[in-house]
Design goal:
- With about 210 residues, this protein is an alpha/beta fold.
- The chain is about 25% helix and about 25% strand.
- It contains eight helices and twelve strands.
- It has a five-stranded mixed beta sheet.
- Helix 3 links the parallel strand 3 and strand 4.
- The protein is globular, with a radius of gyration of 16 Å.
- The two termini are about 30 Å apart.
- The structure holds zinc ion (ZN).
- The site of zinc ion (ZN) has 4 residues, from loops.
- The site of zinc ion has 4 residues, from loops.
Length: about 210
C-alpha cells in the first residue's frame, strides 16, 4: 500500500466446521455494539442466519480459540459447555483480561490448554505460533490434497501469505515471519479472519455466511 492513510475495509468473521458428526467453531466473533463502534465496525449479528446451518449453539461440540482478542473470543458465552481448545498462554491471558462471563465459561468447560501443538480429531493440527499475541495460534488441515491454514491473526489477509508479507501488529516479529514464510513456501491456502475476499470468492449460503468447503 502506498498511502498508509488509506482506509481498508475488512471483515470480522469466524469459521464453522462439521466433521465426524461434530460441530466445531474456530473462534466465536463478538456482539458488543459499543466495542464495535469504538473500532469503527458496522456490526451485523448473524445468530438468526446461523440457524440455517446449526440447529442450536448448545449442540456445538468444540470451540477452538486462536487467541484471546475480543473479536475472536467474546461470543464464547453463547455456547453451553463445549470442549475448548486454546493455547496455555492465551488461556491465562483470557482468565486475566476477558469479561466475567468469558472467564466463567472457561472455568466451567473442559479446556485443552496447548503449549505447542495439539491434533484434534485426526484432522485439525492446532499450533501455537506466538507472533500476533503471546499465545496466538493457527489451525492446519488437509482436505482433498489441499493444505489449508486457518490463520488466526497471524495473517490478516490472504495476500499476507501469498506475497509473503508479515502482518503489522505482533508481539514477536520473528515468530510471525517464520510462520508466514513457512506457509508461503509450502503453498498453504490461507483462511484468515479479516479478509473480505473470503466472502467474495466462496459460495453464498445466506447474506453473511459463505461456504468454503
Ligand atoms: Zn487479534
Amino acid at each position: 500500500m502506498n498511502n498508509s492513510e488509506e482506509i481498508v475495509k475488512i471483515s470480522w468473521s469466524y469459521y464453522i466446521a462439521k466433521h465426524n458428526d461434530k460441530t466445531i467453531f474456530i473462534d466465536t466473533g463478538f456482539r458488543d455494539e459499543t466495542v464495535a463502534n469504538q473500532w469503527g465496525i458496522t456490526f451485523t449479528g448473524v445468530e438468526t442466519e446461523l440457524r440455517n446451518i446449526i440447529d442450536n449453539l448448545n449442540f456445538v461440540d468444540t470451540v477452538i480459540i486462536t487467541h484471546s482478542h475480543f473479536d475472536h473470543i467474546d461470543n464464547l458465552d453463547l455456547f453451553d459447555t463445549p470442549e475448548i481448545i486454546i493455547s496455555k498462554l492465551d488461556y491465562d491471558i483470557a482468565l486475566e483480561k476477558c469479561s466475567q462471563s468469558i472467564k466463567e465459561k472457561l472455568l466451567q468447560c473442559n479446556v485443552v490448554t496447548v503449549e505447542n501443538e495439539y491434533i484434534y480429531d485426526n484432522l485439525f493440527r492446532f499450533k501455537v505460533i506466538g507472533g500476533h499475541s503471546n499465545g496466538s495460534s493457527v489451525v492446519y488441515f488437509k482436505l482433498d490434497n489441499n493444505d489449508y491454514v486457518i490463520t488466526g491473526d497471524e495473517c490478516y489477509w490472504c495476500d499476507n501469505m501469498i506475497s509473503n508479507r508479515p502482518i503489522g501488529i505482533y508481539t514477536s516479529t520473528e515468530n510471525n515471519e517464520r510462520f508466514i514464510n513457512e506457509a508461503h513456501q509450502n503453498g498453504l491456502i490461507p483462511l484468515p479472519f479479516h479478509d473480505l475476499k473470503i466472502f467474495d470468492q466462496n459460495s453464498v449460503i445466506s447474506k453473511n455466511i459463505v461456504r468454503i468447503l
